[in-house]
Specification:
About 35% of the residues lie in helices and about 20% in strands. The chain is α+β, with helices and mostly antiparallel strands and about 210 residues long. The chain has 2 domains: about 50 residues, Translation initiation factor 3 (IF-3), N-terminal domain (Ubiquitin-like (UB roll)), CATH 3.10.20; about 120 residues, Translation Initiation Factor IF3 (2-Layer Sandwich), CATH 3.30.110.10. The strands form 2 sheets. The protein has a 4-stranded mixed β-sheet. Strands 1-2 form a two-stranded antiparallel sheet. Helix 3 links the parallel strand 3 and strand 4. The longest helix is centred in the first third of the chain and has 18 residues. The protein is elongated.
């Protein structure tokens, strides 16, 4: 048993330990039940629970939540649609989210993967101040994907996140156009909805938004 000052008292019978705790108007708490014999401690249980709750709260505050979004393009995307979706990618990067960019090929389009590569390379170049390419363009069946992560400048707070909404306004509505929702993965979250991910994953499987 350990007393209220953190000093080891030694092995005691449970009734004796309870009596000692009651005499000090404190509680007898089992802190290591798996030990043999179990380890108990004399303390103020209400204060102990409060301190534990505060530690958990602080840990959550400092835990970095990682969110992975997804934006889908077509290889023959119109310039206006490209600009609109690029602004969505920019907004996500400014908010320190990762973005999975997917090029969807249909029919004979799959025979021209260079068109998808050109779109992804252009996007990476135009957004190089806000994001870095974490995963280079990779062909997976009829889809080509690239993963972008926020740049060091964004993570360090050297980039104004308020500029994201303004950028969306220049290229169109900050809400996704109909084609974005239509092409979305049915299991993905709606565009603009925050979906936390427990741990970093270069594959970006945790959460996405069309």
């Amino acid at each position: 048993m350990i007393d209220e000052d953190g000093q080891q008292v030694g092995v005691m019978k449970t009734p004796d330990a309870l009596t000692l705790a009651q005499e000090k108007d404190l509680d007898l708490v089992e802190v290591a039940p798996e030990a043999r014999p179990p380890v108990t401690r004399i303390l103020d249980y209400s204060k102990y629970k409060y301190e534990q709750a505060q530690k958990v709260k602080q840990a959550r505050k400092h835990q970095q939540q990682i969110t992975v979004r997804e934006i889908k393009f077509r290889p023959k995307i119109a310039e206006h649609d490209y600009d609109t979706k690029k602004h969505h990618v920019e907004r996500f990067l400014r908010h320190k989210d990762k973005v999975k960019i997917t090029i969807m090929f249909r029919g004979r389009e799959v025979t021209h993967p260079e068109r998808g590569t050109a779109i992804l390379d252009r996007l990476a170049e135009e957004l190089q101040e806000l994001g870095v390419v974490e995963q280079r363009p990779m062909q997976e069946g009829r889809n080509m994907t690239m993963m972008m992560a926020p740049s060091k400048a964004v993570l360090a707070g050297r980039v104004d996140t308020d500029g994201a909404e303004g950028a969306a306004d220049e290229g169109g509505s900050p809400t996704p156009p109909p084609e974005v929702a239509d092409e979305a993965n049915p299991e993905a979250a709606e565009l603009g909805q925050s979906v936390p991910q427990a741990a970093e994953s270069p594959s970006g499987e945790a959460a996405s938004a069309a």
